[in-house]
């Protein structure tokens, strides 16, 4: 979906916003967050078993090197501000403003690094409503046919022709985690969250296996709020119904 926003309108919208200090937009973990594990154990394991972490992935964007320079100035690179749980990934100091149809906007959307071959904006459903964009649920990188938006930084703006998605929930894990649960890359799992008066079972959690990954489920802010993740009394992963039982 193509979208055009007049440059003068953008400048009017962002004149004050780009002067604001950058606010944090990280992730929140479940009470089962990991502590450092001995070197004899796989990454992220504690006491001989996987230590599940469930993180709320707030709205954020990924940028190409070219778009970083357009938005923040020639020669600019992403500046790490806070390391994410997955090694090598970080929340950058830089933020952008996102402008949707009819000049609706979201200020201070965090950029995550490192840079990618294509730019992508990841929103929750309520974010997409606020912007006036009908963002589809997609797994990261599957942006063909998705809506676009305008990204605005202190040095310029970028009009994305596509790349706005509602990120589908997924779990990062390594081969040791996969063996423990009896799953493989591309399988679907089930995330069970027990919370007082609002327990939720999330189906269709995509398995994304990588040898460098640590066990972590990503859900968006709407999903985290629906189950009151911060107050959860129990959180565990299991195979989808119909598969054999696994530990948790």
UniProtKB/TrEMBL annotation:
GO terms for molecular function: acyltransferase activity, transferring groups other than amino-acyl groups; metal ion binding. Residues 24-46 are annotated as: Disordered. Keywords: Acyltransferase, Bacterial microcompartment, Metal-binding, Transferase, Zinc. Residues 24-44 have a biased composition (Low complexity). Its EC number is 2.3.1.222. Pfam families: PTAC. Its main location: other. The keyword Nucleus does not apply. Its cofactor is Zn(2+). The keyword Cytoplasm does not apply. InterPro entries: PTAC. One of its GO terms (cellular component) is bacterial microcompartment. PANTHER family: PHOSPHATE PROPANOYLTRANSFERASE (PTHR39453:SF1). Belongs to the PduL family. This is Phosphate propanoyltransferase. It comes from Rubripirellula obstinata. The lineage of its organism: Bacteria, Pseudomonadati, Planctomycetota, Planctomycetia, Pirellulales. The gene is pduL.
């Amino acid at each position: 979906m193509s979208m055009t926003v007049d440059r003068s309108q953008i400048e009017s919208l962002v004149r004050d916003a780009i002067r604001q200090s950058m606010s944090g937009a990280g992730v929140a973990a479940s009470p089962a967050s990991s502590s450092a594990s001995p070197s004899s154990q796989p990454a992220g394991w504690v006491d001989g078993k996987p230590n599940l972490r469930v993180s709320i992935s707030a709205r954020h964007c990924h940028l190409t090197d070219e778009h970083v320079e357009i938005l923040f100035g020639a020669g600019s690179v992403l500046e790490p501000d806070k390391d994410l749980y997955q090694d090598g990934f970080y929340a950058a100091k830089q933020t952008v403003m996102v402008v949707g149809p009819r000049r609706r906007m979201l200020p201070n959307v965090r950029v995550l690094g490192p840079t990618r071959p294509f730019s992508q904006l990841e929103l929750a459903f309520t974010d997409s409503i606020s912007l006036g964009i009908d963002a589809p649920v997609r797994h990261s990188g599957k942006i063909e046919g998705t809506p676009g938006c305008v990204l605005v930084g202190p040095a310029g703006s970028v009009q994305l022709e596509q790349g706005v998605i509602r990120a589908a929930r997924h779990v990062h894990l390594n081969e040791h985690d996969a063996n423990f649960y009896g799953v493989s890359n591309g399988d679907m799992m089930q995330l069970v969250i027990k919370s007082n008066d609002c327990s939720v079972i999330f189906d269709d959690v995509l398995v994304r296996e990588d040898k460098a990954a640590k066990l972590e489920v990503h859900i968006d802010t709407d999903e985290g709020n629906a189950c009151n993740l911060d107050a959860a009394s129990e959180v565990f992963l299991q195979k989808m119904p119909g598969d054999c039982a696994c530990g948790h």
